[in-house]
Amino acid sequence: MPVKRVLIFSLAYLPFAGGAELAVRQITDRIDDIEFDLITLRFDRNLPRVERIGNVTVYRVGFSKRSPTARDLMRFPLYLTKVFFAFSALIKALLLYRARRYDALWAMMSYAGIPAALFKLRHSRVPLLLTLQEGDSIAHITKRWRIKAVWPLYRLVFKRATFVQAISQYLAEFAHTMGYRGPVEVIPNGVDIALFGKEIGEDERTALAQALGKKEGDRFIITTSRLVEKNAVGDLIMALRDLDVHIKLLILGTGPLEEQLKLLAKKYGLGGRVRFVGHVDMKEIPKYLAISDVFCRPSLSEGFGSSFVEAMAAGISVVATSVGGIVDFLFDPEKDPDKEPTGLFCAVHDPKSIAEKVQRLFSDEALRARIVANAQKLAYEKYNWDLIAKEMREKVFNIISS
After folding, report:
1. Class of the CATH domain delimited by 4-190+384-400
2. What pTM does this model have?
């Protein structure tokens, strides 16, 4: 039987790594009977135009800049390359198809589906698999000017999709809202259990805690977040005002709001209690989780929330908002009394509520231990990447085997 080939469309890809990009890597690395090619934006001129990463051959298109910052990606001229992705990716796809004759297209997130939908106008028999990984609210997505500028093409993605896989029930409903009428399979993102579930040695934990200035009696809240509006890190900083001075905050991640958030902490005299760690390699994150006591990201919207499940796998109690896909895996003892608790919900845009929930975990050790045990069990049993990749192969990519 000839080898099947799939062409992936993704606005960004490694080394620019968010939940969607990591999902592609984790899934494709575990499927060895399909050849994967991927078209993405180059952004950084230091990156090669063609590169092999794991089980994927990456083709980068669009104009670029040497070593762009997170802020550069949001501003002219690099932001324009996102607008033109529909056309630069389409041209590249048509050229590749001449030699590769793909058996399916796979669009990672709806905007990346535009060039795939246009491709199907020329090659209608090639099935289009659409994965919905969007983390922003639906209202925010549809109000973006680069979406509004191509609105008819954006709607075309849902009309041309052969099959939709969503990482949460919330996003499955979004597909139907946009007019999609075909089958939808909800398959969440997973967690690298071997990485986040491993035991961190005492020496490593002690060294890192000392490097970050953790003293006896200190407790750390940790968040691993892009510093953008939807993650509401500012609310988390403000919550410190209602917590004991020995409770401090580690912020892992960068983004366009970094300077604004630093000024916020300084303005309210919290600079000494907030540590902006910056970008941390994925392989190092478990060490930071191991020296922390509570994970919190008070999101305004969340398509799924891989960082929460990673914290659960690492044995850290979680405080979150009940938005988007978070409700698929986080069960609060008050909100979900019929289920075993896996975390606590705080209110949206409410620093006092955040502080209250964090304090409850610190005050009720029995509840915290129960939550940690349940959450870790759930992460291991349902969100292991090996299981997720198997589901993707059997329920999504089976379309090219039938």
Report:
1. alpha beta
2. 0.90
